[in-house]
Amino acid sequence: MHHEYHLKSSDTIRDIVIGMSDGLTVPFALAAGLSGAVTNSGIIITAGIAEIVAGSIAMGLGGFLAGRTEADHYAAELKREYDEVERVPEEEKAEVKEVFAGFGLSDALQTQVADEMAKDKDKWVDFMMRYELGLEEPQANRATQSAVTIGLSYILGGIIPLSPYFFEANSQIALVYSCAITMVCLFIFGYFKSKVTGQPRISGAFKVLIIGALAAAAAFGMAKLITGK
């Protein structure tokens, strides 16, 4: 028997990727930059935690607003489609026929399908939403779920590069450990991100790793340049 693999819960996975990507990269770059300017890990911990809190709230709010915008857009288009099947049903039938014409159906079959579909207004509108507008109905509470998922993923990702500073008072030494731990995590994260999205796994892992490393190196170098140390 032939089995096909399809990615499920793609919205949730997308939110985790968004949160983890920024969570691993931004606090890592911040910690690296501060390590180039100060030697006290306590300062970096304070700044890092503040950034993680602010970043998770900002990212979560962004996810919430994006989810609400998607839901509002769907509701507005749904209302418009119901209005159009009432006011201009023949034009809507013509649009249904256009969709099936793209599948290679004959004119007679197009007309038959459009007439049958018009008997059930709800299914008719659902078809138009999916195949004319390319819109899927958002999940209930999608905006809230997105906000929570992105925010928690950001916090989880941000704690990783910051963790060595809790155990090492000298920020220069802590930075070495932070780099080692975060580089490994970035590679693993990039690998699994590429796996679930169907991209080349090794090259995808290295892309994520390089982006994180460049961000941290730029922040560290800028701090050194500004302080002159």
Describe this structure in words.
It contains 9 helices and no strands. 82% of the residues lie in helices and 0% in strands. With 229 residues, it is mostly helical. The radius of gyration is 25 Å and the shape is elongated. It starts with 9 loop residues before the first helix and ends with a helix. The protein has one domain.
Sequence-ordered SSE layout with sheet pairings:
Elements lengths: L9 H26 L5 H47 L1 H13 L5 H11 L3 H12 L9 H21 L1 H4 L3 H26 L4 H27 L2
Instruction: Calculate the mean pLDDT score and round it.
Output: 80
Strand content is under 5%
Assembly state (oligomeric) = single chain
Task: Kindly name the structural category.
Answer: mainly alpha
Q: Tell me about the biggest sheet?
A: none
| Broad shape | elongated
Rg calculated over all Cα atoms: 25 Å
Per DSSP, the total helix count is: 9
Question: Helix and strand string, N-terminal first?
Answer: HHHHHHHHH
Number of domains: 1
Total beta strands: 0
Task: Write a concise keyword list for the protein shown above.
229 residues, mainly alpha, disordered N terminus, single chain
Summarize the structure.
With 229 residues, this protein is mostly helical. It contains nine helices and no strands.
